[in-house]
Structure formats: C-alpha cells, structure tokens
Amino acid sequence: MSKTAIITGANKGIGLAIAKNLIEKDYQIILACRDKIKGKMAEDFLGSNATFLELDLSKSSSITQFVNRINSDFSEIDLLYNNAGLIYRDFELTEEGYESMIAVNYFGAFRLALMLLENLHRSSGRIVQVTSLSMYLARTFNISGLHSKESFSPSSRYNFTNLLRSMFALELEHKLKKTSISVSAAHPGVTKSRKSRPYEVKKIKKSFYTYFSTDIQTGIAPIVEAIEDTNVTANQVYAPKIFGVYGTPSTMRHNKMVYNDALRNQLWTYTANELNLDI
Ligand SMILES: NC(=O)c1ccc[n+]([C@@H]2O[C@H](COP(=O)([O-])OP(=O)(O)OC[C@H]3O[C@@H](n4cnc5c(N)ncnc54)[C@H](OP(=O)(O)O)[C@@H]3O)[C@@H](O)[C@H]2O)c1
C-alpha cells in the first residue's frame, strides 16, 4: 500500500526535490505550501500523486485549518517532513508578534508536528526535521527577547533557529519514546537548491556559496536516508559524510548544546507556554 507524506515548503528547492523522489517510490505527497499559485504549479509538475494544501507556518490559524483538513481527508499520515524555512534579511514580526524566522523555522514546525501526533501514531509514522550546518555556528543559548529587534542579526538568528530545530527533534524523540512515532533530523550540507522549481529558471545569481555548494541530489540524500532508515534516531543528524557538505549520507553529532538536557527542557517549556500546546 502506498504511503502518505506531508512535506512543508514543497513548491521549490529541497522540498520539491524530496517530493519528486518519494513519488518515484509510490508515495502520495501532500504539498503544504503557503502560496496558492506556487503550490498548484508544483502539484501540476509532480502529477496525480501530489496534492497541494495551503499552509502558512507563520500563522497558527493556518496550521489549525491545515490539520483539520488533513484529519478529515487522510486518516493515516506516514511521514511529516518539516522542511519549510527561510532566512530574512530584516527583522519582521508575524501577525502574532513573533520574529519571523523563529515563527516559521521553529514554532511552525513544533505546532504542526504536535497537532499531527494522533494521526501519525495511527500509522506508526515518522517526523523528519530539517536542520542545518549553521547550527554549529550558534555559540550560546539565549531565549529571552527573541521577538525584539534589539541584538537581531539575520545570520545569527538563522543559525540559532537551526540549533532549536535540532534540539526540538531530540526532545521530541525523548517525549515520544513510548509511542510508535519515530523522529529523525537531517541537513543537506550546502546545496544548490534554487534550480529545483516547477518552472524553468534561466539565470541564478552567483553568491559566495555557489563556489562550494553541491548539487541537489547530494543535498537530499541524507534527508531521504532520515526518511527511510529503519534504525533511525534523532540523537545524531543525517548529513553528507565529508565535512557535512560532500559525499554520501552519514550520521554525525549535533551542536553539543543539543545534548544538554536542561537547555532542551528549558526550550520545550518556553515553547509549550508560548504556543499553549504540549504533549
Ligand atoms: N539549501 C541549503 O543548502 C540548505 C542548507 C541547510 C538547511 N536548509 C534548510 O532546508 C529547507 C529548504 O531549503 P531550500 O534551500 O530548499 O529553501 P527554499 O528553496 O527557499 O525553499 C523554502 C521553502 O519554504 C517555504 N516557506 C517559507 N516560509 C513559509 C511559511 N511561512 N509557510 C510555509 N512555507 C514557507 C517556501 O515557500 P515560498 O516559495 O512561498 O517562499 C519554500 O517552499 C529550509 O528550511 C532551509 O533552512 C537548506
């Protein structure tokens, strides 16, 4: 029987490439995207095994609507791949007053996963959380004043949200130990994801990363491994083997702060209070 997967941010980039890979393996894919036109374009591009459903991770009401729709139309979800994410140059607040990178990259993934647990449990499903090499650049753990402009810098905030994504994956695995749901974390190294779109991209501006980034197949391989490995754990992160950038997938340790139980507890309590949602 074919499996059903939800992929957030599946209209382009790594999300779209993972959707294509899983459809080739007979998965039914729900493309959870915030933009109707881009979502529909990806649906047409991928064919009849793909269904677009609107989801804006920066809005709790959109996540609730999405989950209600999933629960009424799909009784068993086998996989949630928390892929959507972004880096903003400027400080921006969401309608709910959260800084946007925290809201989308971390809070949105947390809320969506927790709201889908019952459904995932029915199919002994898996949650795969994307994270990034940039988590290793996060040097301190400080969750006070996250939604104020003071001391905001786009790159250090992006690094921090990836630290939080890794901490979330490991803590979620601990909390779900007695359930049938498995959890894993993966990062794609540094991948040229911009070409992966449901339309032709003629010109892509070169950036600093262009010179050492890998092709998208190298980038998605660790994520596919995190989806398919039968002995999966979130205690390590799936990543390209050489320097976390090149080669075939392997597993490696997260940033050492991820293994600090007290910090993970502090983060969980803070998030559960902010979002008014817990297991
Ligand atoms: N590429 C890399 O080298 C790399 C390395 C490490 C980690 N990652 C992580 O991997 C993930 C995918 O990266 P990528 O390179 O494929 O990025 P991408 O091409 O920019 O794709 C990001 C996806 O997230 C979606 N998204 C953004 N905000 C959203 C929201 N509020 N609600 C729902 N969807 C939203 C985007 O939708 P729109 O098209 O509507 O903007 C897009 O579909 C990201 O989380 C990124 O942090 C990437």
Order of helices and strands: EHEHEHEHHEHEHEEH
- Overall residue-averaged pLDDT value: 96
According to CATH, the fold-level topology is Rossmann fold
Shape: globular
Structural class: alpha/beta
Q: Which ranges are low-confidence, i.e. pLDDT below 50, for 5 or more consecutive residues? A: none
- The neighbouring-strand order within the major sheet is 3-2-1-4-5-6-7-8
Helices, by number, come to 8
Model description:
The protein has 279 residues and is an alpha/beta fold. It has a single domain, classed as Rossmann fold, CATH 3.40.50. 39% of the residues lie in helices and 15% in strands. It has helices at residues 13-23, 36-46, 60-73, 100-115, 117-122, 154-175, 216-228, 261-275; strands spanning 4-8, 28-33, 50-54, 79-82, 126-130, 182-186, 237-242, 246-252. Strands 3-2-1-4-5-6-7-8 form an 8-stranded mixed beta sheet, sandwiched between helices. Helix 6 (154-175) links the parallel strand 5 and strand 6. The radius of gyration is 17 Å and the shape is globular. It binds NADP nicotinamide-adenine-dinucleotide phosphate. The site of NADP nicotinamide-adenine-dinucleotide phosphate (NAP) has 27 residues, from helix 1.
